[in-house]
UniProtKB/TrEMBL annotation:
InterPro entries: Bact_Lucif_Oxidored (IPR050766), CmoO-like (IPR019949), Luciferase-like_dom (IPR011251). PANTHER family: LUCIFERASE-LIKE MONOOXYGENASE. The keyword Oxidoreductase applies. This is MsnO8 family LLM class oxidoreductase. Coiled coil: none annotated. It is an enzyme of class 1 (oxidoreductase). GO terms for molecular function: oxidoreductase activity.
Length: 332
């Protein structure tokens, strides 16, 4: 049993043999099905110039999904502050929140959203990497503009995304809810959350520490099918370990013949041990363990699975098995 709300992260993988527009169309069906299943929120990640991930602006996907769903919360997970003027982020998400009351989240992150330096510079009009102080100032300015310039009602719910103690420290200082990327940097999770809770300063946005933990989750009826479905993301991760991304997102059949090195397999096994893969019973048990170990108030599932039907089936299985028969679905 999992006694915290369950949410989802949409990464919008562009699959081999398909076009980016096909991935874009799938995002609508995905949002509508998660809404029907009772998932609490759905966030969209910002990426650029990746052959395996669609370059779809989170604000646009959020707007489209909000118009085609009825209850699920929607937003960015995250929109990357260094790539945007703070006042524009405030105006865009403030407008969405006014159009779709109590359903819009503004999750803010720091990374460039690309591994290509020239793309990162183009996003920032030639500027170099953001410093810690510049990032802090951008986040603070975005929050200030929401209140002072946009001043609509209700406002979006702001979150700070982090994968390190430094990001968690900023969330604590600003008094923001923290969304931690356990699916990216699991070795950092416990230390970062400990720092966040110990140093949290209450704010008008959040009265006490509030933590969402994102977990890579692949669920299937059998262990063999879960292993098969995890193969494509293993290929992507192996590429990232070498400093490049494979393109596009491979099929399970392509992944089954990928030449993983011994080092690849060791690193992938270590990562997998901290996530949630397998049958419903195994996945639910593992998610409950993560929730207990981290004290998470909410879990967000990242499910990088080839083919929309298989990806949705993973979310269906988790939702079907996550709650005891007497449990109630969290209200949106």
């Amino acid at each position: 049993m999992i006694d915290v709300p369950l949410s989802a992260l949409e990464v919008a993988m562009v699959q081999t043999g398909t076009r980016a527009v096909d991935t874009l169309r799938d995002t609508t069906a995905f949002a509508q099905r998660l809404d029907a299943l009772g998932y609490h929120r759905l966030w969209y990640a910002e990426h650029h110039h990746s052959p395996a991930i669609g370059a779809f602006p989170p604000v646009v996907l959020t707007a489209h999904a909000a118009a085609s769903t009825s209850a699920i919360r929607l937003g960015s997970g995250g929109v990357l502050a260094p790539n945007h003027a703070p006042i524009m982020l405030a105006e865009q998400f403030g407008t969405l929140a006014a159009l779709h009351p109590d359903r819009i989240d503004l999750g803010i992150g720091r990374g460039p959203g690309t591994f290509d330096e020239s793309t990162a510079r183009a996003l920032r009009r030639g500027a170099g990497p953001t410093t810690d102080d510049e990032y802090r100032d951008d986040v603070a300015a975005t929050l200030r503009f929401l209140v002072e310039e946009v001043a609509l009602d209700p406002l979006p719910e702001p979150w700070l995304l982090a994968s390190s103690t430094a990001g968690a420290a900023l969330a604590a200082r600003l008094g923001l809810p923290l969304a931690f990327a356990h699916h990216i940097r699991p070795d950092n999770t416990l230390a970062a959350l400990g720092h966040y809770r110990a140093h949290f300063a209450p704010s008008p946005w959040c009265a006490s520490p509030r933590v969402l933990v994102c977990v890579e989750t692949i669920c299937a009826e059998t262990p063999e099918e879960a292993a098969r479905l995890s193969g494509p993301m293993d290929v992507v991760k192996a590429g990232l370990l070498k400093g490049h991304s494979e393109a596009p997102f491979p099929s399970p059949e392509e992944a089954s013949v990928h030449p993983f090195t011994a080092e690849d397999r060791q690193a992938l096994a270590a990562f997998r041990s901290q996530q949630a893969y397998g049958t419903p019973a195994t996945v639910v048990r593992r998610l409950a363990e993560v929730a207990d170990a981290t004290g998470a108030d909410e879990l967000m599932l990242a499910t990088p699975v080839y083919a929309l039907a298989a990806r949705l089936r993973s979310y269906e299985l988790v939702k079907e098995h996550a709650a005891a028969p007497s449990a109630t679905t969290p209200q949106h």
